[in-house]
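Write out the 3D structure for:
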Amino acid sequence: MALVVQKYGGSSVADAEAIRRVAKRIVATRKAGDQVVVVVSAMGDTTDELIDLANQVSPAPPPRELDMLLTAGERISMAVLAMAIASLGMEARSFTGSQAGVITDETHGWALIIDVTPGRITSALAEGAIPIVAGFQGVSQTTKNITTLGRGGSDTTAVALAAAIGADACEIYTDVDGVFTADPRIVKGAHRLPTISYEEMLEMAANGAKVLMPRCVEYARRYGVPIHVRSSFSDKVGTWVNRHVSDEAEESGMEQAIISGVAHDRSQAKITAVGVPDKVGEAARIFGIIAEAGINIDMIVQNVSAIATGRTDISFTLPASEGHKALDVLRAAQAAVGFQDVLYEDRIGKVSLIGAGMRSHPGVTAKFFGALAEAGVNIQMISTSEIRISVVVSQSDIDIAVNATHKAFDLEADEVEAVVYGGTGR
């Protein structure tokens, strides 16, 4: 008998019919002999609708009250799902994040989990009930206020609970059949990966693949929780995210595949500080200003200094949602720092090639750039890690770049494998 945590995303519990389908799957798991703890997201687009409501009544909703409002979405899901399970003849008990023992810091909107004390969950299991936990939420250790974990927080809730109760696996149910070599919406020949390492999945998630959130994968890697990504709309085998290469590769004695996939991100923007004095400490001043504003940056490129002027340009990428905030703080500091101008571009995107095998295979970079050149895609910026190469390209070239790269590395499936049942990939 295994102990599993099953997490169901918003598209999986979007309406009454979907909730009944999920309830049947949960009951089937229990009848098969496994113990199961369930984590649910808000139904469909409920969270977005609640955010819209808050913005209609207040131009700047207080963070504490916004968190209180947003957690209502998951409370609805957990209660209705518990009712659906009860109608199938099994006892289910719903718990909010705080009732489930999810303890966080005091940050509203992006709280970090400090601890999980799942006493009520383990008690419910011992008494034969199926615990249904509201994802995305917890309670502050210091203020005792309700907090939310940010977008994708239900994934993190599920993995944290799995670690706390010693679950054998955490099953993340979405509206796609697993993790694919590229987004099947733009690459029709994308194929499902039977397994992928935590490191590769982290890179995929951080660079635009939306099937899992980076925080969830990082938590799973830290505590060694195997993640099983599956669709709630089918019975296909899905993708395992863990520390190992695929069983098929191990049995055949094969090395791990060079490339696992191609990810893309359309939510990037680029800022260029023009005419920065080429002196020690100037870059530190610029990025210190950005850091003080709480803005995360991604890729950075500094041009060679012009000998005649002694000045250089520094470009960096960041989430487009933070673009205008970064512009404002840089312009406010322009006179003090001494750069000449600030340029902003949001019609860009990032394309990333990811694979642990590239560490030991020369020529990957040349093939990647060759494929982009052949497709007529101009590269604006480049960033690398041990298992990733990322480039910034024009937003109009993203689909072309992803398809060209996918084809160049022979990642195409023989037949169409991917079905997006709910339309969101979550």
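The first strand starts at residue 3 and ends at 8.
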